[in-house]
Design goal:
Two copies of one chain form a homodimer. The first copy, chain A, has 702 residues and is α/β, with parallel strands linked by helices. Chain A contains 24 helices and 31 strands. In chain A, 38% of the residues lie in helices and 21% in strands. Chains A, B: In the N-terminal section; belongs to the acetate CoA ligase alpha subunit family.
Chain lengths: 702, 702
Amino acid sequence: MSIDTLFNPKSVAVVGASRTDGKIGHTILANIIRGGFQGAIIPINPAAKEILGLPCFPSLGECGQEVDLVVSALPQSLVKTVVDECPKVKAKGLIVIASGYQETGPDGAILEQELVELCTRRELRLLGPNCLGFINTANNLNASFAGDMPGSGDVTLFSQSGALCSVMLDMANDRHMGLAKLVSVGNKADISGVDMLAYLAKDDDTKVIVGYLEDIVSGKNFIKAAEDAASNKPVIILKSGTTSAGLKATVSHTGILAGADTAYGAAFKRSGVIRADTFESLFDFASAFSLQPLPKGNNVRIITNAGGAGIMAADAVELAGMKVQEHGQNERKAAIQQPQKIFKPVNPVDILGDVDPGVYVTAIKAAQTDSDVDAILIVLTPQAMKRPAETASAIVTCIDGTKPIVAAFMGGHETTLLRKELVAAGLPLYKSPERAVAALKAMGEYAAWKKRPPRTVTRFKVNRRRVERILSRRQRTGMLQLGEVKGKDVLGAYGFHVPTGALASTAEEATEIAERIGYPVAMKIVSPDIVHKSDLGGVFLNVSNRESAEDTYDLMTLKIRKKVPGARIEGVYVEKMASKGLEVIIGMTRDPQFGPMLMFGLGGIFVEVMKDVTFHLAPITEQEAIQMLKSTKSYAMLQGRRGQSGVDVVAIASGLQRISQLTTDFPQILELDINPFIVGEFGSEPVVADARMTLAPLPEEK
Amino acid sequence: MSIDTLFNPKSVAVVGASRTDGKIGHTILANIIRGGFQGAIIPINPAAKEILGLPCFPSLGECGQEVDLVVSALPQSLVKTVVDECPKVKAKGLIVIASGYQETGPDGAILEQELVELCTRRELRLLGPNCLGFINTANNLNASFAGDMPGSGDVTLFSQSGALCSVMLDMANDRHMGLAKLVSVGNKADISGVDMLAYLAKDDDTKVIVGYLEDIVSGKNFIKAAEDAASNKPVIILKSGTTSAGLKATVSHTGILAGADTAYGAAFKRSGVIRADTFESLFDFASAFSLQPLPKGNNVRIITNAGGAGIMAADAVELAGMKVQEHGQNERKAAIQQPQKIFKPVNPVDILGDVDPGVYVTAIKAAQTDSDVDAILIVLTPQAMKRPAETASAIVTCIDGTKPIVAAFMGGHETTLLRKELVAAGLPLYKSPERAVAALKAMGEYAAWKKRPPRTVTRFKVNRRRVERILSRRQRTGMLQLGEVKGKDVLGAYGFHVPTGALASTAEEATEIAERIGYPVAMKIVSPDIVHKSDLGGVFLNVSNRESAEDTYDLMTLKIRKKVPGARIEGVYVEKMASKGLEVIIGMTRDPQFGPMLMFGLGGIFVEVMKDVTFHLAPITEQEAIQMLKSTKSYAMLQGRRGQSGVDVVAIASGLQRISQLTTDFPQILELDINPFIVGEFGSEPVVADARMTLAPLPEEK
């Protein structure tokens, strides 16, 4: 059922409407009336004949008309009776304000589940519970107790937290930001963040989607809905709870390095969601996206009436990774030839404190016609000799929708007074250059995301059945840690190059294997009880002849038995020494919400000490994989440094894509490390030198 | 001469006072009168008999009384005549508003120099030129055209930029921040930032010093003045121009890695200056320091009326490196035993949206008596059912000056209305938890700096005379690049361990030296024309016998001659192979303002690729040197990792201290790299494996 009827009803009933000022049932009814809703408004209360001038009915069933939207202002214990009455008036939507559900614990969660089931049976879409309701400015419907009707506009805000929904409304009013809708989604029992994204993507009244979320339940659906929405219009989200990393049992490097927040970051990036870190930036960004066009590039022209403020703005632009754009040749000449010489053809353009507002206009128009300028930042400081209001009025005449223009008017009260006029004229206004620049940066990044090439995920030819057999056998026997031998077996089936080798269970076997594959060989202990082999002396490299192969076998097993008494030793893996190259780590950890997250990092210290790693959600394209490599600091190492040639980055990207395919094909793989993955020069085949995987247990049979 | 008379004059004359509204000479006079200054106010203008009700005189000399402070509102061309008249009225201070001096270029700089000299001869202290004047609320003197008189308070603002001085005044008024003084220092021709720090450190009206600076001319004096001031009261500075790195000719790693901003960062850290990155944080910090005591530790208790906002606050606290403090055992018990169960004994304390303001009070008092809590963050979201004003009034009754309390009242207009009351009651108010936390963090860092141990710089016994001889010979001959041989010579004299070695100029000599010091040896080309020896095949390691020593000599000299035709080859340096160990880089680059800046980083890729280095101004203490090591990401490498033991960090610290002493003793050393500096286990002697220095040319004789 569409949720559109919920937001655009012909008639609204408030069950639990009250005559007592201050009660929620009163506030909501009063808000609906005051908002100017033109449909039928029906208060329901058995103890009243009339409320706020409207005839009141004892129950929904007795109101004698169809009701599209029912707002329940009753306490939790009475909500069920409301739902039961809904079919009598053919209600399509229900808002449940009451708290006392999932947010209170397991008992509440059961109540909430029951409520959802009841609504589904009654064919009702449910907003809440534990919410403030919603406001829709398009039909003047304020079905909430959030506050007064905001101005009409094209930004829609939705919030999981009721209290922060109030904050958002308050902030929007304070900034004179017009809203299309304000939606308090509460516990998201039925209508979720995903539903909101899908609905708002197609909502013609909404040009910018802004959300506050504390959790995302279905990661995959979220990514799909968010990407769809972001392809249509900007989606800006503040996700809180970034640092409270959940404790998670993990043995892989990849798992250890992925923080609780990494998956959200990866998901937002994938789906084109613009992420805000604070409420202030949420609104800073929303204002720019709502009022101005996207920039075509990252060249910023700064126009200022104070040198110091210009320096600050230029600092901010450079720190944000954008460019302070010098004047073009022609423009430079024109500026110099101007008889007044009102400004120097440099950037920041300092038009000096006490000039005519017309000079701002001249400078802005010059920037608008300069093809090397992608965005314009106007900086204004209050100067006692000239009131800024006149300048503001002059500046807004320049807004033509061709290039984004943002303004930083520094100072206090006087600037605040100008905000209404400027915003109404379409100029996003900030109190500091830094915040204006942050908004420009967000616009630039979104513009770049929109221009991304189509995603084509390569499917490699692999031996899927072999992996299926290995994994299901391991899951059946409960041996969920795959060590080097089985790990390499799986990877080999997915096209990874694995050195020739075999498991020896006696010293004689070890020498036989070594002779067969040729020296030098590597010898490694194989035991389900030992994770970090090398720490315990379980790895010997460059074993170069028969005698030392035999000795190594005996010595290693002896040592391990001493160090880890009771360890089950399956034998020693003897394999061809990997050729030399650069050691990198590629791996995967499965996020409960967002699925497989791929990791890349340079081996050893770069991962362990510097934590210089990047993550990306699977499935991954070749281009994305190469982008992963490029976004590590240590990327320069891959390109080669003084006196060293680079390595085959495409081969690493291919490894990441193969892991992507493997872990997408097999959801039972929870974690995977290829460490080290040894890569050589261009055209050489990278080698899996060691590997490890963790599988999920088979679901218990009931 | 003290600048106190300038700020506290008994009489003020405005030269160039005007009857025309809008002219600077009118505004300043009007500001002085309107501000309520109780001393004599004397307008000077030959064309007027009376201005704004005051008798006007044709010239200073004709006013017939002593004038402590003269404000010149005249254009630059007339300023000299004003200075010449000053002695006639025994003036002590002069404010020059006019621009047209140093900021315009070399000609203006000469005019400014002349102005300063003239003032010095006339025993006048000069504020400006190119400034707005100053405001002193203690004597109601607004000798500026900055704007209206701000409220009285204990924060003093000073600014190098006039336009940003207006911004600061505007922002202070907007935030109801009371000011002691507002000083526009302009071009700082006489009264500089250093003078302001020294004066304000002792100014009883000033509790918090806040400055905006674009440059610092005398780094050493600045550090001293700032450290003195910061030992008395908080000094918060915004320094702009951080990214516009000046191009600087440099050959050392240290020089390349030190950005234009590195020295400022190091200087501020050394001197206890609290650095703000934006104007908003400048005021955010000032407000907290002005109104609240410093925290004793970094445990923060969060009290909120909305769960979501509490999560955001907790995120911010953790990201800032502070701790979200759980309730203590006793307090936990008390909270649980409370019959009302008004809040759960967790942190953030969520007191829920619609409770009585008294619950805030209970929660705050609990935090105040809990010895595990160092700071309290109150988060409030507007809730439609309860106006925040009542809550605000209740909260401010708790302020007792024992622990810092800061508040984040989220939302818009309503919060703004409360600000005045809250600030008046001593509660710093922020619009978001993030900004409140940033202020707490700044307070915590300043508190930690105040508790720093006394700085004792070790003086090592060294052979200073030997270095003196080497350097002056090189300076005289103009050979300012010291390569490996001479570099090691200098370092050896300062107690560094240098491998035994000698310069060979023939293959025979090379073998003789090698035989004498014992194999294996390292052989390196010595040429003043070759900086990166190893890139050109000028380094051979592990030469292990007579024959290969001879061959190496011939081969190396042959190759280098081919690769760098015309290079002056002095020979080949033959030295004992350094023992194995961890390679680090220590070095120095001399900042024009702040002098020698020491650098530390792990060798090779860590410096070249990861740029993982730290800087510190010389002279350095042992503790500071160890802190330098600890503040690199790669510090974990020094401590040893899986299966590897750590290295002698104290020995590295000692190396840094020796460089500190060397480069403090010899200002002619401009740059110095020890790369690599090979360090081993604890107790082992680190080795200078290679070194390089750049000297300053001798000053030209006149």
